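Archive transcription. Copying these from loose printouts into the bound notebook so they stop getting lost. Printout 1 of 2:
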Amino acid sequence: MAGLSMEEFERRLEAVCSKSSFVKSATLFSSTASSNLWRVMLSDDSFIDIYYSEVVGKTSFAHIKNKQRIFGADNAGGWHWHPREDPQRHDFTNTEITFDEFLKLAEENLSK
């Protein structure tokens, strides 16, 4: 997702959310000239915070429940997962993690 314009990132985010039965809403939570923070509310009243900075190319996804990150992914220092069993851990990957991929895994966790 790095290298996308803010507008393209928003279009992709909204397209992914519109296909999900678990997403209740997607709202621009905070915005600057070069970055956005989105909040995607899920059907179990947890949410995903999505940060994207066009200028520095930072992307992060954090699934939050009861005020704690329960699952995440970001590209700070290279793409990595913060797995559900230990959200503080960094499991590095050689491939970019998309929001579509992240949301699918979050949905799998919700349906367990």
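Printout 2 of 2:
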Amino acid sequence: MPLTTPTVRDLMLRAWENHTAIPGFNIPYLPMMAPVVRALRDTRCFGLIMVARLEWVKFESGGPGPIHAEYQRQKDDRFTRLHMDHVPVIDEDNLQVDYEADLQEAIDLGYDSVMVDGSRLSLEENIEATRRIVARAHPQGVAVESELGAVMGHESGPIPPYDELFASGKGFTDAAEARRFVAESGTDWLSVAIGSVHGAISAATRKEKKVEARLSIDRLKEIQEIVQIPLVLHGGTGIQKKYVLEAIANGIAKINVATAIRQPYEALVAESPEKALEAVYDATVQMIREDLELEGSADVIYPA
């Protein structure tokens, strides 16, 4: 084991440089954390335990404090770090969010990295919002993720049919804008919109199977060549595997997973909490081994 524990920024750079990726698993219900950590350990995969603001507003994660407290009980520094996922400036219901307060709470609690989501803002406003969080986080050694473009799926209303959405490139990250955004915001990692979609979160649709998404690898290559920092893929459940592996080879260093582990838990928890937790474990292992092919990644990016 190294004498000093690497930061999540260090590990993300190692993943990026080695053309592998770090999966991030969203925890909308606190009991899900233990089987996810166990699955990461058993597969020797380094991953992030994550919570987004919508998971304490729309689900039952409880908020930054309860997630942090549970993480202290479950963490394994060899295989995990704690990430604050989407804290939007404007949320999925088009409401203004006190994003600086939420992210400051995560920074003060000791989260290893945070994400400010200004994707519903103009380019200039997104840069400024991200710069504000970078100024708060970096002095505390906390890495910052941001988003440019629009990864759809969390909106309260319907989105266009997927084939229409993909063909139009609506919401896709613009490479020229990405160049300016990265240069001016100081972000450590950039979430890009290249064809993936988030899982539905409304009570009426959250049980539905996700669309089988595709990715514009050409757009990804264009962005990566320009920005030269680790890129992030949100909406990682349901993407055709060949696209995922090609994306990892072309700059995606972090992949977010939520629906694939949430739906098995929700399907079984009323019948048997024990079965629900085993289903989370099994789904996490399958995602790591089969869908992402990241088993053993810790041995690459965090060698003992």
